[in-house]
Specification:
This protein has a domain of 80 residues: Beta Barrel (OB fold (Dihydrolipoamide Acetyltransferase, E2P)). 34% of the residues lie in helices and 18% in strands. It has a five-stranded mixed barrel. Strand 2 and strand 3 form a beta hairpin.
């Protein structure tokens, strides 16, 4: 190793001055305000509130796919479509062709705030809405009822193998 001699530390003017604070305005777009007011131990106070909101299951959005059947609430009624709240990131719409099996009286009875059973036809259209169908939801519900009845009837009609053999002889 080489002997470098005594090391002398020179005082620089930058060491005597306080350090410059980072520019928060560029980082958060707040125009010079600190990133989060009320920071505790370096952690933002709102972070725990934000985390609570993110973790709350009541704020979860559903990932919808074709064929999902779910309940929705009528939010708005237009001449040729309904706007439905289905608990997703955006509302769903039911175009008039998707409730054509309803009688005019049934359509007239549907009001804002009513619950309706809907079928997901298209998870997201070009406007960002979910396209829904009352007609297909009714078909799916009828099919499920028939399937349950068939399964129930089928299980009650089963015979033991010995009974079947005895009847054949």
């Amino acid at each position: 190793m080489e002997d470098r001699g005594p090391q002398v530390q020179e005082d620089s003017p930058a060491q005597d001055q306080p350090r410059a604070q980072p520019d928060h305005a560029a980082a958060n777009g707040s125009g010079g305000a600190p990133a989060v007011a009320g920071a505790v131990d370096g952690a933002p106070a709102e972070q725990s509130l934000m985390q609570q909101l993110l973790d709350d299951p009541s704020h979860d959005y559903r990932s919808l796919k074709y064929g999902d059947v779910l309940d929705g609430t009528i939010m708005q009624r237009d001449r040729d479509e309904f706007l439905i709240d289905i608990g997703s990131k955006s509302e769903g719409i039911i175009p008039s062709k998707e409730y054509s099996t309803l009688t005019p009286d049934e359509v007239a009875q549907l009001k804002v705030g009513d619950q309706v059973l809907v079928f997901v036809v298209q998870p997201e259209n070009q406007d960002g809405h979910t396209v829904l169908s009352i007609d297909k939801a009714r078909q799916e519900k009828s099919w499920r009822v028939l399937q349950e009845k068939y399964d129930k009837n089928r299980s009650s009609r089963r015979r033991s193998p010995t009974t079947t053999r005895a009847a054949c002889w």
